[in-house]
Write a structure and sequence with these properties.
The chain is an alpha+beta fold. It has a three-stranded mixed beta sheet. Helix 2 crosses helix 3 and helix 3 packs antiparallel against helix 5. 19% of the residues are buried. The protein binds zinc ion.
């Protein structure tokens, strides 16, 4: 009789533990699926904001009458701005032109950096990478709403503040 009761208790405990384990698996699965979905949604939002920003930058080029071309080879550069400079170091931006690698065509970062060069050259006669990044950052923040800036927070930091690109 004692043996039977012990067996009954053991079986009951085993079933309860097993049910708890199943519940744990179920909730873990649900939570990880939710997290996965949130990450995916954020990524989609980020891509959408990047495409919008890129389009605004392209519009800006046309507003400033800066020809923009996409190339499949620019040597080691991801993009550059071509302009005339005379022997005295005077800069002429009238016939300048921006070229960006085709693979960066749908991302705003390289184009923003090159427009940053344009603004820095035009406003301050400064041709440094740091000033181009600073201007690019200011320009992007100006073109983005606060929420959009939050979407692209990492990109703005990486591309314009911490990693000075050439
Ligand atoms: Zn540059």
């Amino acid at each position: 009789m004692v043996k039977f009761i012990a067996l009954l208790i053991f079986t009951a405990l085993f079933i309860i533990t097993f049910i708890c384990f199943l519940l744990y698996l179920y909730f873990t699965l649900i939570t990880s699926k939710q997290i996965e979905k949130e990450i995916q949604l954020k990524q989609e939002q980020r891509t959408k904001t990047e495409i919008n920003l890129n389009q605004k930058l392209i519009n800006l080029c046309s507003l400033f009458s800066i020809p923009l071309e996409y190339k499949n080879d620019l040597g080691t550069a991801a993009g550059h701005i071509l302009y005339h400079q005379d022997r005295k170091g005077r800069i002429f931006l009238d016939n300048c032109k921006i070229e960006v690698l085709e693979k960066h065509q749908n991302k705003p970062w390289v184009l923003a950096h090159e427009i940053g060069h344009y603004i820095a050259l035009n406003k301050l006669k400064d041709d440094t990478e740091e000033m181009a990044d600073q201007m690019a950052n200011e320009l992007c923040c100006m073109l983005l709403s606060e929420n959009e800036q939050k979407d692209l927070e990492i990109g703005l930091k990486v591309y314009f503040k911490q990693e000075g690109r050439r």
